[in-house]
Amino acid sequence: MLRGLRNLNRLWTIARCLAQHDALTLFETHSAGRVLARTVRRVWSPRASVKGLRPGQRLAMALTTLGPTFIKFGQALSTRADLLGEQGAADLAELQDRLPPFAFAETKATIEDDFGAELSVLFESFEETPVAAASIAQVHFAVTTEGREVAVKVLRPGVRRAFARDVDVLYWLAEWAEHLMPRLRRLKPIEVVRTFEETARVEMDLRLEAAAADELAENFSGDDTFRVPAVDWQRTSERILTLERVAGARIDGDGAVAAIGADPVAVVKTAAEVFFKMVFHHGFFHADMHPGNLFVTADGVIIAMDFGIMGRVDSATQKILGEMLLGFLTRDYRKVAEAHLRAGFVPEHKSVDNFAQACRSIAEPILGKPISEISIARLLGQLFQVTETFEMQTQPQLLLLQKSMLLAEGVGRTLAPDINMWELAKPMIESWMRERLGPEAMITDAAASMVNTLEKLPRIIDRMDAATADMAKGGLRLHPDTARALRGESSNGGSRRRWPAWAPWLIAAGLLAALILG
Fold first, then answer.
1. Phi and psi for 261 in degrees, rounded to 5?
2. Catalytic: 288?
């Protein structure tokens, strides 16, 4: 009861903000939503300042007004072209994560509270004015007492409390949406909120961001084309992250990369190769690679920043993605469809041929363009838009990957508009496909499976010894219901058709197989 009243009060504020920004389009895809939108508009009229803006732009403005949680939620929604349409998703992808800075006194208090020491004991100098202020934290430049130049990220005061309040509202709305509109269950609104909550919680524990930066740096330790700032673990806590201060040209700067002497085309090629290595070699990728988070040195080295949003792809998903991309690039749409069904993304009762036809309808208009205009991220985005027809389940890890590819392509377009970054990385992609999807890969996978089975043999023997000992002591013990079933009795004491005499031996064989395969 209290939860409902509290959430209704917050919902009132949200509804007013959305109405005033004329940002209720998202709710008008269902009859109940249209009725709700019309009712809200009768209470609050749109502001004159939002007239002429696209629906996605109006929604982005409303979410910014609602505060940190909704800014982050808008960024998460930017992956959902199936909900917002391609233009709406693109508009939210440009949502600026910027808020006014909080007072230096609060920064100082947070640092001293976390480390139990005066600021002057930890830092020789500390710039009071932040260089960046976002929804979760802000960043100050400083110099440690050892003389190292660092960037210190400080969590925004009160952000966790505000986040907990607003996420509860989002859960509440998702629960009602699934209850009132069963058609939306396929889109997993509760799971979408849960994924958002988990991602945002990681962002609000700066120790986890430090660990992500450390892991990414370790993955690229032998690579001289990509750098991650070193973590100062002695000055890092749950609310504080201290990283090595880096220098370079911001990729989003107008001509800044060329101005320092770096070759923009070479940088685009490096960015494509780095992204491909993250996803398909390491299975751990930077999921927020927008131009503002990337710097370039004069010799073309890319330096990444802001490791709060990271994604993971396991080896099985890597292989499925590889098969999908290979199918699209070779225009083998049946291969694409079969990969989706085999992965369980599309139910087995759906027609492979019909899904292949849908894939063709999406890909041909894109792949038929000049190579510089082809967008793999746009291809994936449009694929998600046809999911309802084929009951395709939402795949959060693929949505995050699609958003990351969109950001990576944005970097490429910023630096070299006439170049396709994936074409530059083609030799690496082809090599990976030969290694993972070719005949040699099949032999390697079979050998690995055999080795895995052999490694299990000691455990199998131990289990068989234990099972033999149990049988010697008191026989094979079965659940009472199973024993009655084997005798041909029902669980309520009645009788039913007896199992054939060989049935117990079949069960025993099944148990043995479970031991061997387990």
1. 95, 5
2. yes
